[in-house]
Amino acid sequence: MGRVFFGPRRLMYAGPLAPTDPHAHPTFQVLLSLDAPVRLRDARQQEVECQAAVVPPDAEHAIVEGTLAAVLLHVPAEDLVGRRLATLGIGVDAASWGAAGERLRACGIGRLPVRWAEAEAQTQVLLRELQADAGVAKPTHPAVKKLLRLLPEALDEDVRLATLAPRVGLSVGRLSHLFSAQVGFPLRPYILWLRLHRAAEHLQQGASLTEAAHAAGFTDSAHLNHAFRRTFGLKPSEIAGVVEWVRPPSR
């Protein structure tokens, strides 16, 4: 059984990796196999076999051959660490993902985390290794910062660009361009990611798929299934019952 370490600004999976459908997500995906190498395929059907990899945001990929033990960490592209990783210039081809992960092979992680503190410690090791060659993160425009702050609480409201732009003091065209340029992908996939995050919160608390879908703003469970598969390469029903949710400790 795998474990999902899920909390504010944290999403890590530790356990066996199975093959997936092609998918893409608005995060950097850091992968480290502690067993056999993993085979990844990019949108051009090129493949790479690697022990570790870093897949950039919005890059379509699929796991072709999995492994029995791996750590898979999602790093938000809009965070400071994500903006530093963007300076590494990782391409959308599978070969560059494997090359970017090379330095992780000797990072010293030898076992899967079980408790939250272990997952946090491994996260810091992985991010420290990756940032060793990274440049200085570009500053984020104040309007984009404001939008990133308000969006998680605005999902139940009208989140169209035409409605959001006046709230941050920009035109629709300017906000659309600025968000894509600074975050690395358009606003729509980011809003979808936030909705999936909210759905996961409800699933973690024991909600049914339909309840989680409605709470996160999806039309129904089929809509959530489709979005989840496009983002993670699997349906939520395919992982239900085979993962253990690990929550951050109460403060």
UniProtKB/TrEMBL annotation:
Gene3D superfamilies listed in its UniProt record: Homeodomain-like (1.10.10.60)
Q: Does the keyword Lipid biosynthesis apply?
A: no
What InterPro entries would the database entry show? AraC_XylS_family_regulators, Homeodomain-like_sf, HTH_AraC, HTH_AraC-typ_CS
Keyword Acetylation part of the UniProt annotation = no
Keywords of the record, alphabetical order, are: DNA-binding, Transcription, Transcription regulation
Highest taxon, organism lineage: Bacteria
GO MF annotation list: DNA-binding transcription factor activity; sequence-specific DNA binding
Signal peptide residues on this chain, from the entry's feature table: none
Matching entries from Pfam families are given as:
HTH_18
Domain HTH araC/xylS-type: start-end pairs:
145-242
- Protein name, please? Helix-turn-helix transcriptional regulator
- From what organism does this protein derive? Myxococcus xanthus
- Phylogenetic lineage: Bacteria, Pseudomonadati, Myxococcota, Myxococcia, Myxococcales
